[in-house]
Amino acid sequence: MITGTLKNKINAIWQDFYNENMAQTSDIVNQLTTLMFIKMLDDKQNAIEAQASIIGIKPRQEDLTFKDGDYKNYEIKDGEKILRFQIPYADLRWKNFKNLNSMDLAKRLKDYVYPFIKDVDNKAIGRFPYFATKLSFGFDYKERLLTSVVDKLSDPELDFTNTDLMGDVYEYMCGSGISGQYRTPRHIIDMAVNMMKPKIGEKIIDPAMGTAGFIIESSKYIKDNQKAELLNVEKQKQFNTGMFYGCDNDDNMARIGYMNCLLHGIKGPNISMDSLLENENAKDFLGKFDLVLANPPFSGSLVESATNGKILGITKTKKTELLFVALMSMLLKPGGRCMTIVPDGVLFGSDNGHKNLRIELIDKQRLIGVVSMPNGIFSAPSKKGSASKGAGVKTSFIIFEKTDKGGTDNVWFYDMKNDGFSLDAKRQPIDGSDIPDIIDRFNNLTAETSRTRKEQSFFVPVQEIRDNGYDLTINKYKEIEREVKEYRSSSEILADIKTQRKETDELLEKIAKLI
Q: Do the beta carbons of residue 451 and residue 384 sit within 8 Å?
């Protein structure tokens, strides 16, 4: 988490955008993250060149983004590849254009640097161009703003070779500027990751990734808990290129998530812009994953003709919150596990789409647990202080294992009352978070069998759930212990009334005599 002067510097950049009447948060995020990516390319090359200089060698050209000589950009006209422009690689580097005057800086970025990072033939910048097809230069007639933002991003404290620091900067910036439909609170993501305990070698996917928070926190968990294994060259390669997958059908979000992965040290994340709910887009993903972690969109809808038929075989519905959970089951390999957030309507909805999904999880897979979260979890304020989308929606985590042959015996329920923050729009830190207790209890489920339903967590036999129409609402099974109150008898109360009335009459007589 960033604090102090660095936080103030990022806030100052946001203020620059507001001062120039660019207040649309998605526009700010798109332009700011693009500039951050451009600076990151140069910072990383500076580090490579400095390391090579220490040992007295010249870095290999294939390791560099900005090579010796000229960069050539081509376009296709009438089926022919035509040279569009040619410019020295050195002129595309942040350090060599950051001090240009406003007009020259805007021209350099718009006419040369942006085409460079959007060039699909430019292998030196990874898969960024794949997510940048719709990206456009956003500083026309705002040259003063561009100069100010570039100047602030050039601060030595904003060093993009420090992945831990810049990852936090990036997430703070995205968290401040993107509405809550894209963002799950970090502490909630951390809880899920600590419950699922991802391991090196597992394939992990978030099919509705947003800014890739679940992917990032999974990678951090592995780095913190499996350091020795990551020293192995093959394991490191697997970590960088073969473990982490994410999908988002919004190209801006896919680009933001991709860059977030890079900034957190995942060198080759497998990010896709396909909607895996639609048509046959998921065919290469089915049955391939060990772990799904997600917070899919609530209250969306998808027409039946566009929906993957296999998903409709599980739950015939238009509701995306149901379709995504069915998809997650299909993405898992046998023995794979899933932990996903759902709106509580998924747990008790009575129509066929809702009920068939719960039957799938309980009777055909192995439903492990339900963590009921309080209203207000998604009420984090935006940069301007307004509550995010999704505020007030009652949600839960569901946890299940892919078996394709059932296996649900007892379902574990936990009633979260405190996530460590107030449940109003301000979401101020408070004491008494249940999250450490949730993690501890989930990681020791054998000790949960003796708990009663008057406690915060307990087991419910699967047959009881079936008998209740597959309802997974915690209040359906929780026993509320009410305080027994003893009241006085009616005769005692009546006697008191008579006494008080007699005393009142006597007092009135005394007042009358005095008058």
A: no
